[in-house]
Amino acid sequence: MTAIASVYQSDVADYWNSERNPVNLRLGDVSGIYHHHYGVGEVDWSVLETAEPDREKAVIAELHRLENAQARLLLSHLGDIAPDHRLLDAGSGRGGTGIMANAAFGCRVDGVSISQTQVDFANAEAERHGISDRVRFHFKNMLDTGFEAGAFQAIWNNESTMYTVLDDLFAAHSRLLARGGRYVTITGCSNDVYGLPSKAVSTINAHYVCDIHPRSAYFRAMAANRLVPTAVVDLTADTIPYWELRRKSSVATGIEDAFLEAYRDGSFQYLLIAADRI
């Protein structure tokens, strides 16, 4: 078993090992919870009217509030989680969602990433929060973690499925989930009705070294791997305000216009899918 099993995965690991994007770090500095995902919810646009020198601080805090709201939404779909349950964050980034899961449920959380830099950062954060006995991050491949079958009551991917072949991913998750356990993903996906990936979606793929899947591929791969959807929530309209605010912020990366174009022209959708392991 190896954490990095292909040239592509090595490229992805290199990307995230070298990533030092202020949008991930400065937002996390607000509360000490560091994420690698986007945000949802209505924006408090009054932050743009905040007088200097406090305007920038207000905008960053609002963006962080929206990314925390996204994580809370994901966690709210995990089902009935007890303190003796074990959860898996597949593609755990800098660990923010796993740390929030422990705070919400008191349970054990494992996270896996093929970025050693992310794993080291996340474990340092678990130590800083005083929960390293319950929350641990591992340099492992989400397609072959080595964890025992049926060990987890819930598993999630928060914007990380686009780095995998979905059939391989859901086969791995189905093996690890207890019968009746819950899988949740929040992900961007291409709209099958639109046809082939739009120019904007292709731009996003190139920017993040990923391969965005069509919406239908999720449901085909779930059906093939004993995962039955219980909730499908279209979050596209809910995430557009985040991108509009981020475009006006000092942490804009230049990819914001591609996201907004793809969401608005219908070629790209932001979905939450929850499924039970049967």
How is the secondary structure organized here?
Elements: H1 7-18, H2 22-28, H3 55-75, E1 86-90, H4 96-105, E2 108-113, H5 116-128, E3 135-139, E4 152-158, H6 166-176, E5 177-190, H7 199-208, H8 215-223, E6 227-234, H9 236-247, H10 256-265, E7 268-277
Parallel strand pairs: 1-2, 1-4, 2-3, 4-5
Antiparallel strand pairs: 5-7, 6-7
Helix pairs in contact: 3-4, 6-8, 7-10, 9-10
Any descriptors?
278 residues; 10 helices
Tell me the helix content. Answer: 40-55%
Strand content: 15-25%
Structural class: alpha/beta
Count all strands and give the number.
Answer: 7
Rg (C-alpha, Å) = 18 Å
Instruction: Give the strand order of the largest sheet, numbering strands 1, 2, ... along the chain.
Output: 3-2-1-4-5-7-6
Which runs of at least 5 residues are low in confidence (pLDDT < 50)?
none
What's the mean pLDDT score? 97
Shape: globular
Q: Give the N-to-C terminal Cα separation.
A: 27 Å
What is the string of helix and strand elements? HHHEHEHEEHEHHEHHE
Biggest sheet descriptor? 7 strands, mixed
- The number of helical elements comes to 10
Describe it for me?
- The chain is α/β, with parallel strands linked by helices.
- The chain is built from ten helices and seven strands.
- Strands 3-2-1-4-5-7-6 form a seven-stranded mixed beta sheet, with helices on both faces.
- Helix 6 (166-176) links the parallel strand 4 and strand 5 (177-190).
- The longest helix is centred in the N-terminal third of the chain and has 21 residues, at 55-75.
- It starts with 6 loop residues before the first helix and ends with a strand.
- The mean pLDDT is 97.
